[in-house]
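Annex B. Sample input.
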Amino acid sequence: MDMVFFNSWGSLLRIVVIGVLAYATLILFLRLSGNRTLSKMNAFDLIVTVALGSTLATVLLSKSVTLADGATALALLISLQFAITWTSVRVGWVRRLVTGEPLMLFYQGQYLSASLKRARVTQDEVRTAIRSNGLSDIADVEAVVLETDGTLSVVKRQSDSARSSLEGVRKPQQDN
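Annex B, continued. Sample output.
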């Protein structure tokens, strides 16, 4: 019964020592790789962040994983993330594959039902985003865009500046 609550002082000491060393290694690798590594700009970045956390936990808690094994795994994940993001900045099809494209959900007074269905977003969620941006009248909204990081951007109806902020967002095809 004691094994359930306490194994040994040696086991706890291993966790403390390996934990400090693995954490320091992760911090070092993250500083070397740049700020983008832990950004949550899109689903790909989130997956890398979760994988790093999972790897760190495995190094801490699994006696069969050495610090060197864990450091190699962390370095591999960070290197792959760096390579993919470096490539996605330079190659359009890789960027679209990794990050996707923003999706217009509401445009010039019309909900785009095909886009809403594709994104699995309700009109209520779009209205919530509009209210969260301090707008009470839907007529004040030029567009609502589902960004690649999952946030809803609300573009206020204005003169030409609002239209220029929609650059890069694929214009919707009219729903039938």
